[in-house]
Write a structure and sequence with these properties.
8-stranded mixed β-sheet, 3 domains, alpha/beta, Glucose Oxidase, domain 1, 4-stranded parallel β-sheet
Length: 558
């Protein structure tokens, strides 16, 4: 056992005395040591209840014959961090989470790890750590939040966090009053859990289940459901089986299970951020993952679920309809059903009894569309790619041509939208918000939601080298690479340039000649970082392009 490094032999007597100080007796010294990686804090609604999940997981470890040791990671609430300097720290927190788990696991020689994430960057950060460490590991998320309800006349209307962001635009438009918005904000988020739609957190928790690193139900059982506690207890027991059988993360997360995860992501119409995170996880696992692979899988994977923000259903509905196992059952002909999972069984064995409802999870022969819900666009504006949630784009905006409205930051664009200076047909360009330029590649739910709230989602597109929230809908194209701060073509766009978007053909172009593009790029001044101190300064120095997952550079990457 790895933990023998801290408990076996006469030379470990000092180590054992410190372990005795924790209350451990001699009997515990002969058992596997399990790290319980809890991302609980009192800031993030998705994490406020995670202590109860941790207690259940620890009970499972004890029951399985192990000794649990709980420790914490940081966690940023993207909703609270949105649209102010705090959002610059969200994506960078992913790397810190991975590093901190590595430090704790290696320093204390844990034999296995139970990961308890729930929100956006925490899940991929922990998955990156699991692949990097490659010791037996299992994930159990805190589960999704329930939807909110508000009375509209004599009917109850379902709302979620995205309803509030779009509500701000409706106030600006004059469609609802500030008092009506205040009523919505009181009810949209009724309690603990990751926000209720197919946003980034829930996308990643569902993908974790699809790739085999979480037990069935990990992605969809609601946070307040007693089955969530049962799942956590079972995860604690199951880590002991994984240790006994020496099943490690890289045995589970193979190229086949990566493709399984991508296929499920396409069927769900998940967050665009999932591509960024899957690339980073694959990087840690030693797998090549080119953006072109996304379109290849999308071309052969039908879109089966339209969940908020693309549709009216939410994660609790997906759970009732059969959950991720039912989605995978519908996709089984497109998956590697022999892929191993943390159950110790294959995907095929896990999904044997699963059934889709045919409505929330459509049958494969009756999809919403024959291709997946995400697409990567390429062209002279995005030579290394840009990502769009095609499932949430109105049909009339799948192909769009219009004049560029250029902004050097999210804040500038938001002010212009609030002042109603954006016209139907415009293509908003927000640049210098990429990994280096932002820095931190901010999510931009505020401008996209304002566009929706103003009723312009079917007439205006938005393109950025930054990111979008999983709650974003409309023709919102992010992750444009190379970013402006690295001298990418998006830095050369001028006000009024015609931008040509063709999502079905995966094209994103600016209508200028190659010669003109070269001329413009040659005149762009060298980028001067906006922040020169602290962690973000180090982040700027180390982070790579969004087209490679915005991971930290290593000697191999240079």
């Amino acid at each position: 056992m790895l933990s023998d490094n801290v408990k076996k032999g006469i030379e470990r007597a000092p180590h054992r005395t410190l372990l005795h100080a924790l209350g451990l007796g001699n009997k515990e010294m002969g058992k596997p040591f399990i790290g319980i990686v809890n991302s609980f804090n009192e800031v993030v609604p998705g994490h406020i209840h995670l202590n109860s999940i941790a207690q259940a997981a620890k009970a499972g470890v004890w029951a399985g014959g192990g000794v649990p040791f709980e420790f914490n990671t940081i966690g940023v609430c993207d909703g609270i961090a949105m649209n102010h300097p705090g959002m610059k720290y969200s994506l960078p927190s992913r790397e810190l989470i991975a590093d901190s788990v590595e430090i704790m696991a290696q320093a204390h020689a844990f034999d296995g790890l139970v990961f308890i994430p729930n929100c956006d960057k925490i899940i991929p950060g922990m998955l990156m750590a699991a692949m990097r460490l490659n010791i037996p590991a299992i994930f159990v998320s805190g589960g999704p939040m329930l939807v909110g309800h508000v009375m509209s006349g004599d009917k109850s209307t379902i709302i979620d966090l995205n309803s509030i962001f779009t509500g701000v635009g409706k106030v600006v438009k004059g469609e609802i009053s500030e008092a009506e918005l205040a009523e919505l904000e009181e009810r949209a988020c009724p309690g603990c859990g990751s926000c209720a739609g197919m946003f980034t957190a829930n996308t990643m928790n569902c993908i974790t289940e699809a790739m085999g690193m979480g037990l069935p139900g990990n992605g969809t059982i609601p946070a307040v459901d007693s089955r969530r506690i049962q799942l956590a207890r079972e995860a604690g027991r199951q880590i002991m089986t994984l240790i006994e059988k020496n099943i490690r993360p890289r045995d589970i997360f193979t190229k086949s299970s990566l493709q399984n995860a991508l296929a499920v992501d396409m069927a769900l119409g998940g967050s665009t951020n999932s591509i960024l995170h899957l690339m980073a996880i694959a990087h840690e696992a030693g797998h090549d993952f080119l953006l072109t692979r996304v379109n290849e899988i999308s071309e052969h994977t039908p879109h089966l679920c339209k969940l908020s923000p693309a549709g009216v259903h939410h994660i609790e509905d997906l759970d009732i309809a059969g959950g991720i196992q039912a989605v995978m059952k519908e996709l089984q002909e497109l998956l590697d059903i022999n892929a191993l999972t943390v159950t110790g069984k294959t995907v095929g064995e896990n999904i044997k009894g699963a059934h889709a409802d045919g409505v929330i999870i459509r049958h494969i022969n009756q999809p919403h569309s024959p291709t997946g819900g995400l697409a990567v666009l390429f062209g002279n504006l995005a030579p290394e790619g840009g990502v769009v949630k095609s499932a949430a784009v109105a049909p009339e905006m799948l192909r769009h041509k219009g004049p560029a409205r250029v902004f050097e930051s999210e804040n500038d664009a938001t002010k212009a939208i609030m002042k109603k200076t954006i016209q139907p047909g415009d293509v908003i360009i927000i640049r210098y918000e990429g990994p280096k330029g932002g820095p931190g590649m901010r999510e931009m739910l505020t401008p996209t939601s304002l566009i929706t709230g103003l009723g312009l989602a079917k007439e205006v597109a938005l393109i950025t080298d930054g990111r979008f929230s999983g709650a974003t809908s409309g023709a919102s194209i992010g992750h444009v690479s190379p970013e402006a701060a690295s001298g990418g073509p998006i830095a050369a766009v001028r006000e009024g340039d015609i931008i040509n978007i063709d999502i079905p053909q995966h094209k994103l172009n600016i209508e200028i000649s190659d010669e003109e593009m070269k001329k413009r790029l040659a005149t762009i001044p060298e980028f001067i970082p906006r922040i020169n101190t602290g962690y973000l300064k180090r982040y700027i120095d180390m982070v790579t392009s969004a087209s490679t997952g915005a991971v930290f550079a290593t000697e191999k990457d240079k």
